[in-house]
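Lab notebook, bench 4. Still working through the backlog of constructs that have no structural model yet. Next entry is a single chain of 172 residues. Request: give me the structure tokens for it.
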Amino acid sequence: MLKKRRLLLGILVQPRGAEFRKLPVEDRLQTHWACADNQDFGVMRELSTGRTRKVHPYQWLWEPLEEDPTFLLRPMFGGKSVYLDGKLMLYFTAGEEPWRGVLACTDRVHHASLLAEFPELAPHPVLPKWLYLPESADSFESTAARLVALARRRDPRLGVSPQPKKRKRPKA
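Model written out:
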């Protein structure tokens, strides 16, 4: 849980280049964390140890899926989309409401059964075909972890096949 909180509140700092090569081998293997006290998620600070990299606040949720050989993480509309077996399963977004939470990518025929199992879910106000778990929900962490577990088990209610991209016709 502490690691999850560090991901939510922290900033990953890793030395690069010549500065990295000067470090002892033991230190090269460690990841350096600097907690952002009293700051919003995603705020970066310059530290003397190297470059900073913004860590997605929901990264801890998709990490268990990374071991899967068919796992694919892609940026999509300012968030991160998770694909398993070529199907879009979950979408993680950390913007402003209503784009702050987890979207379960599903068909409308599965809404009733998922809503019965997860009462915290609701159709997204902009994309009603997908179910939305807002970060502001009381049981956000546990419900999001359960959704990830469903995706990992390949629950047939989760996942949509992406539409094939249309080929652009050359101008005549």
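Notes after review: Strands lie at 10-14, 32-35, 51-53, 72-76, 79-84, 87-94, 100-104, 122-123, 131-134. Helices lie at 2-9, 17-21, 25-28, 59-62, 111-117, 140-152. Flag for follow-up if needed.
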